[in-house]
Design goal:
alpha+beta, L,D-transpeptidase catalytic domain-like, 3-stranded antiparallel β-sheet, about 10% strand, transferase activity, signal
Length: about 725
């Protein structure tokens, strides 16, 4: 009964609250900046002669629009540019940008005390020059036809600088690649791979990377000499053979088996030929370790067709087999490459072990398919119970108890313990009641779970790699957010994410600003369908609901008296006013929000709808991430950043004054989609593919599961019975 009442409350909360679309929030943000952008455009035109000719041409090409600053602060583009340059510098590349980068960081800090249009214009121009210098530094020495102007235009068209940076990722990686000293030897062999010999044995466009690699190695052999295979080769062969994730039926593994079975060559030319053959094997295998099996272009095309609001930003991996080999030679061991290529995300090694477990189960035939059966409670009898025991035993949840007949049809306490463990591992309420959602989870095959684990490993390879100490990670299928310190969790809590049709975008950014006592700008659809009808009946409605009416989106714009407006003349045509809910516990954004600049207009925030956090599947928002314990998150940020004074913040939250708090150092945030992983206790966790992204990735990956491996589909993502 308690659960039913809880469910009815959730239904009431969801159905009684009108929801806006993602486009509306993006349009509101655009309108908020419109007047400011017009002022900036005029200022840019008036002062364009003060910048370099190239920057002038770029602004002319984009209609003199501001790129790097917004009405409130720096734009998402600015945050990304500064982050990418910082990443390059941290990896020892493009060091000529260090001074202008540091100078601009100091200038940006001054924005918090002087947010004038003049100051923002200075920042805008300085950012554009830094962007231009950054791209030129990347392109220097290449024959690329790309320019800062072309890349920026394409990025603005795509809505993110990710597009432009991905276009030059190979060149950026090359800038990070070290070179060997002229007198630095690798194997000490008499064999020299001169340029002509290298060219003769590496003909073909697919072998251009081999030529590049040996130029970096000063044309020295790495893999073989007159004495036999080097330690680098032995390590490569050992790792390939022991890799539990690598497809042993694929061409690269067959290539490895062939090379391993061949006798050692004796003649110089054959030794050189073998050198190149092993080098190609290394490149193919290391490429697989770096990039995985996901075809991102194909996936994104499919995503646009199937998910109107779906978005998945991918930052190209800024590593290469060539870079890793040169570094390994300098370190005197190939173990360096294998360690560096491995994703740093916690639990990666545990995930690999889980993959081995499920592959073994799947190869042995999996578990028995359960017939259709009705809901089961502990103590009930059913002919499905013996099969259920066997099903759970094979996956490792059921451990036989003394004195229990394996063929008994009674749902006993021993089975209850196993069912609860299974439910907990699948994100369901661990109560032992077997309902619709538990039956659906039980129906998933071992092979399909194995494929999902492979997908998780492949996706982790593409998480943006940075050198920051702190990270915030929101995992959508798990409906949880975790804050890490050196990849050790220091805070974890439940979240509500976007529902189907309003999917929370998957991307990387950095939390830069916290807002205490935020305003909520009310979208047009809610004004039209909820606010206006009630204002027509009662002009005092907005006052009762703590809604302010302004002439503009800023809370500092003139207020409008609702009693002095004839609301009846508005209907399909909206009034020329902006509605916003004032700060307070009743506010739709709650008491605090955490901002990270992005083109999707999403952020993390508090919410008054606390009952939604009791649900197993919490996909209810229009795209933003709602926090279960926002004050605890605020406290965690105060422990990370001394600029966030928690005691002072608590006092501010007792009042209703909007107060922004800018972090001294931004904190990376990853919104990810991992539906299968292993927790710190070694338990393999699975969650429902709430957006259907797992199935879409399986259809577009370079490897495909068979048709019978398709996961059971929920007809009701928010079904109540576990």
């Amino acid at each position: 009964m308690k659960k039913l009442l809880q469910y009815l409350l959730v239904l009431f909360l969801v159905s009684s609250t009108l929801h806006a679309t993602v486009e509306e929030y993006q349009q509101m943000q655009k309108e908020l900046n419109e007047q400011f952008n017009q002022q900036m455009q005029e200022a840019i035109k008036a002062n364009i002669s003060t910048v370099s000719k190239e920057v002038q041409e770029i602004y002319k090409a984009i209609g003199y629009k501001p790129v790097w600053v917004t009405k409130e602060s720096l734009s998402a583009n600015a945050a990304m540019l500064m982050g990418e340059i910082e990443d390059d510098l941290a990896n020892g590349a493009l060091l000529e940008l260090k001074k202008p980068f540091e100078a601009l960081k100091k200038a940006q800090e001054a924005l918090s005390t002087d947010p004038s249009l003049e100051k923002k214009l200075q920042i805008e121009f300085a950012m554009m020059q830094l962007y231009t210098d950054h791209i030129h530094a990347i392109l220097k020495g290449s024959d690329s036809l790309l320019t800062p102007e072309i890349l920026l235009q394409e990025s603005l068209k795509e809505g993110s600088l990710v597009h432009g940076f991905n276009a030059v990722s190979k060149l950026r990686t090359a800038k990070r690649t070290p070179t060997l000293e002229e007198n630095e030897t690798i194997l000490g062999t008499e064999i020299v791979l001169d340029e002509n010999l290298t060219k003769a044995l590496t003909e073909g466009s697919d072998k251009e990377r081999l030529k590049t690699m040996y130029r970096l190695l000063n044309y020295q052999p790495v893999w073989i000499s007159e004495k036999g295979y080097s330690e680098y080769t032995k390590e490569l062969f050992r790792v390939i053979e022991a890799d539990p994730v690598f497809d042993h039926s694929g061409p690269t593994y067959r290539e490895f088996q062939t090379l391993k079975s061949l006798p050692l060559p004796q003649e110089k030319k054959e030794i050189v030929r073998r050198e190149f053959e092993i080098a190609k094997l290394y490149q193919d295998y290391m490429g697989y370790l770096l990039y995985g099996a996901i075809d991102w272009k194909k996936f994104k095309r499919a995503l646009r067709k199937t998910h109107k609001h779906g978005a998945w930003d991918v930052h190209n991996v800024l590593l290469s087999p060539e870079l890793l080999l040169v570094e390994s030679v300098q370190q005197k061991t190939l173990k360096h490459a294998f360690e560096k290529v491995k994703p740093k995300y916690p639990g990666y090694d545990r995930l690999v072990k889980a993959l081995q477990k499920y592959k073994k189960i799947a190869d042995a035939g999996g578990w028995p398919k359960l017939p259709d059966f009705k809901d089961l409670k502990p103590g009930m009898r059913s002919s499905v119970v013996p099969l259920l025991r066997e099903r759970l035993r094979i996956e490792g949840d059921y451990i036989p108890c003394d004195g229990v007949d394996a063929n008994s049809t009674k749902y006993d306490n021993c089975l209850l313990k196993a069912v609860k463990k299974f439910q907990a591992r699948h994100g369901l309420e661990a109560e032992g009641y077997i309902g619709k959602k538990t039956r659906r989870a039980l129906a998933e095959t071992a092979r399909h779970k194995y494929v999902r684990l492979r997908l998780s490993i492949a996706r982790l390879k593409w998480l943006k790699r940075d050198t920051n100490r702190y990270h915030v990670v929101v995992n959508i299928p798990d409906f949880m957010v975790t804050v890490y310190d050196g990849w050790e969790p220091i805070e974890k809590m439940r979240v509500v994410t976007g529902r189907k049709g309003h999917e929370t975008p998957i991307f990387y950014n950095k939390v830069k600003l916290l807002v205490l006592n935020p305003y909520w700008r009310i979208p047009p659809s809610i004004i039209r369908h909820e606010t206006l009808p009630k204002l027509k009946r009662d002009p005092g409605y907005t006052n009762k609901k703590h809604i302010e009416i302004h002439t503009g989106y800023s809370e500092h714009s003139p207020r409008v008296n609702p009693y002095k407006v004839n609301w009846h003349k508005y209907g399909k045509r909206l009034p020329p006013y902006k509605f916003m809910q004032s700060p307070g516990d009743f506010n739709a954004l709650g008491r605090v929000k955490f901002l990270f600049p992005n083109s999707y207009s999403v952020y993390m925030h508090d919410t008054p709808e606390k009952a939604l956090f009791a649900r197993d599947i919490r996909a209810f928002s229009h795209g933003c991430v709602r926090l279960h314990r926002p004050i605890d998150m605020l406290k965690t940020f105060s422990e990370i950043d001394s600029r966030v004074d928690f005691e002072k913040a608590e006092k501010i939250l007792q009042d209703t004054k909007k107060t922004p708090v800018r972090l001294s150092k931004s904190v990376p945030i990853d919104i990810i989609y991992i539906s299968a992983w292993v927790d710190k206790d070694g338990e393999v966790q699975f969650r429902e593919d709430i957006y259907g992204y797992d199935e879409l990735h399986m259809k577009t990956a370079k490897w495909l599961p068979s048709a019978e491996e398709k996961a059971p589909v929920s007809s009701d993502a928010n079904a109540t019975k576990t």
